[in-house]
Automatic annotation (TrEMBL):
Keywords per UniProt: Transferase
Domain N-acetyltransferase: 20-192
Superkingdom in the source lineage: Bacteria
InterPro entries listed in its UniProt record: Acyl_CoA_acyltransferase (IPR016181), GNAT_dom (IPR000182), Ribosomal_N-acetyltransferase (IPR051908)
UniProt-recorded Gene Ontology molecular function terms: transferase activity
Enzyme Commission number: 2.-.-.-
Protein known as: GNAT family protein
Source organism of this protein record: Tessaracoccus lacteus
Length: 217
């Protein structure tokens, strides 16, 4: 019998750096992850940081909505459009979520990232390291030429993480957030601009994942 990661290669991806580990979000981790989200993700000193209202939902709705989003994301991943969902552990403790996504990657070589940490785990440098780790994966394993990310203008913490990692701001546009007008800031970074983490980054599950997204060796 085959394992889950042999059947569905995104489930086999893992990235390690010092005491931080990113590993594929799998169905068995969802119950613990949603309780972390319910305990709080949104800082009182920033605007609401997400595009959808998921973090504001009552607990039962948040659990169901998150689970449905994860199943949709796993089920719809194809070489031409995929999103790799990873959980973040620091010192073995579950602290948050980091994703990596792309459309038409073999042609564009551009990836996008998004992330969140439980409130109790923010402000300790983890957000910076996990972004550096996923960008190292994008550049070194996938051969990305550019990493992109975006943040609302009133989310200076996320913007600061992007600046520390080496991104440059290249655009700002009006968008809708929870039915209200907001401004979104766009960042991009090449491998040459990338400030790598101080400790080495190691990867697992990369050959199968490269095949899954149709990267030719
Ligand atoms: C964004 C997030 C992932 C960053 O993770 P983190 O572990 O808190 O970030 P770090 O500790 O690595 O770095 C935060 C940086 O922001 C700085 N910062 C904190 N508050 C700030 C503020 N109000 N204004 C400007 N910078 C601020 C910190 O000083 C630090 O920079 P420094 O190392 O130069 O001192 C995390 O805060 C989070 O989950 N926030 C809620 C969800 C979210 O915003 N997700 C991103 C959506 S785009």
């Amino acid at each position: 019998m085959r394992t889950w990661s042999e059947i569905y290669p995104p489930f086999g991806v893992a990235i390690r750096c010092g005491d931080v580990e990113l590993s594929a979000l799998t169905p068995d981790v969802v119950p613990e992850l949603v309780e972390l989200a319910i305990a709080g993700t949104v800082r009182p000193d920033t605007g609401y940081p997400f595009v959808t209202n998921w973090a504001l939902l009552p607990p039962a709705e948040l659990r169901l909505s998150a689970a449905q989003f994860y199943f949709d994301t796993w089920g719809s991943a194809r070489p031409e459009s995929w999103q790799l969902l990873m959980v973040v552990r620091r010192g073995g403790q579950l602290v948050g979520c980091q994703d990596l996504r792309a459309t038409q990657f073999p042609t564009t070589r551009i990836v996008h990232t998004g992330s969140w940490l439980g409130l109790a785990h923010q402000g300790r440098g983890t957000g910076t390291v996990m972004r550096q780790m996923v960008c190292a994966f994008a550049f070194d394993v996938l051969g990305a030429t550019q990493c992109r990310t975006e943040a609302f203008l009133d989310n200076p913490v996320s913007q600061r993480v992007s600046e520390k990692v080496g991104y440059e701001r290249f655009d700002q546009r009006p968008v809708e957030r929870l039915g209200e007008p907001a401004e979104e800031v766009y960042f991009r970074m090449t491998a040459e601009q990338f400030n790598r983490p101080t400790e080495p980054v190691t990867f697992a599950g990369v050959v199968a994942f490269r095949h899954f997204i149709d990267l030719v060796d």
